[in-house]
From TrEMBL:
Family to which the UniProt record says this protein belongs: Belongs to the SCO1/2 family.
Residue spans crossing the bilayer: 6-25
Keywords: Copper, Disulfide bond, Membrane, Metal-binding, Transmembrane, Transmembrane helix
Name of the protein described by the UniProt record: Redoxin family protein
Annotated positions binding Cu cation: C71, C75, H159
GO molecular function, one term: metal ion binding
Domain Thioredoxin: residue ranges: 33-202
Disulfide bonds: C71-C75
Keyword flag Disulfide bond: yes
Amino acid sequence: MRDKSYIWISFIVLIFGIWVVPKVIKKFEKADLMYMGTAPHFELTNQDGKTITSDNYKGKVYVVEFFFANCPTICPIMNMNMVKLQNAFYGNMNFGIASISIDPVNDTPEALKRHATELGVKNPYWYMMTGDGKYIYDLAKKFNLYTGVNPEAAGGFEHSGLFALIDKEGNIRCRKDEHGNPILYYDGTDDEAVEWLKEDIKLLLDE
């Protein structure tokens, strides 16, 4: 009887090991997403009046956007898609969002606080940030994301609707197109691109 019990126990351990080990190994594999360099360092003020730097996102996967609260065109779509991402990863303390205003004169911490409340921001690491205008525009250039002042544009500003994806180690990451070329950023106004982003966030959270 003891011999049979030993055989069964060995069999169970073997099967368990075959099932678990690949999962453990996979957990520490790097996602098949391209590395596009280190994300620029930043230091800004959030909706609570606190100084936030890129170091606050260390160890987290996060998404960066440049927007402004009174934007009448693409920003409402971008922000609602950010809410979808927030809700998809709700409760995961390793996920964050960096929303950086390109209208710092009007987007004071108090104004951003109201905007965050209206949107339903619940993730404690979703910081809506403001600061010196020149600093913010220079930061956008470092990200290679277009921003600009244009009195003739709706709302007085222009910017891309793109989201940047940053991994836990502070690297900009992205997927490839069918030819193996990087799709550097994710269109924050496009439903399919947001679904891609959601998939890729999951991959980076599992790294």
